[in-house]
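retry 2 of 3: previous attempt timed out while embedding adenosine-5'-triphosphate. Reduced batch size to 1 and resubmitted. Inputs unchanged:
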Amino acid sequence: MNMMSEAAVEKALDKNMSDAPLKMIGKDVSVYYGEKRALFDVNLNVRKNTVTALIGPSGCGKSTFLRTLNRMNDTIDGCRITGKITLDNADIYDPSVDVVELRARVGMVFQKPNPFPKSIYENIAYGPRIHGLAKTKADMDRIVESSLQRAGLWNEAKDRLQEPGTGLSGGQQQRLCIARAVAVSPEVILMDEPCSALDPIATAKVEELIHELRTNFTIVIVTHSMQQAARVSQRTAMFHLGNLVEENDTDKMFTNPDDQRTQDYIMGRFG
Ligand SMILES: Nc1ncnc2c1ncn2[C@@H]1O[C@H](COP(=O)(O)OP(=O)(O)OP(=O)(O)O)[C@@H](O)[C@H]1O
Ligand SMILES: [Mg+2]
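retry 2 succeeded.
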């Protein structure tokens, strides 16, 4: 019998993400801030149980595109979007969509760790409570523990659950924010430069975590670091001046990109 080793299976999984089913589809997505157009007819798919990295020079529209995926742009005055974005083939901009529910399905982790000024426990319990995910205190305790476990923070946090989340180190706070995102069982997690405020060791921990989270979640991450994109993602999308330049398997993108602008960017010629 031809048994593949675990590493080989992992490698094969990593290599063939172009075949993974589509979780979100962005079709002809354009975004305007008042008169200014920030995205130009972007067509970008997000594949299930895949880490998709968004890269490109500052101001190219990475955060703008990321925010369209859970309608965080709705909160910005004067921001307008055209085109279509679907989650499991349903239009997320349809007037019937409950945005609070959408954001529970498509969670977000920000650049700067932003725990609530409450205890570690409350930081995680807040979301499940407003979404009615726990019937009893024991249910909630389980959610808090498993979320912290998944975020690789349980051992460090289990003896200080009632202490303020803001008392944790920067890297721990970011993992707390990931635990908070995971607690409502989202399907997709959006991360906008989640490691840019972290030191190399904390960054390595969060990257390892992203790798593990892919088993249960679909992840879209904005990063300035091409090394990070290469380490954590299976698919990469390159933006330039509001245009999607190229979307490809990460391996291909960093070894033999189809577009000259991608080549120039990864060679450090601009940005
Ligand atoms: N709230 C806003 N109001 C007006 N213009 C904005 C707003 N947010 C972003 N923009 C503009 O839209 C364009 C894309 O910005 P965006 O923040 O998406 O880029 P980015 O690729 O995430 O950049 P960075 O790498 O610096 O974070 C830029 O020209 C930016 O100035
Ligand atoms: Mg940004």
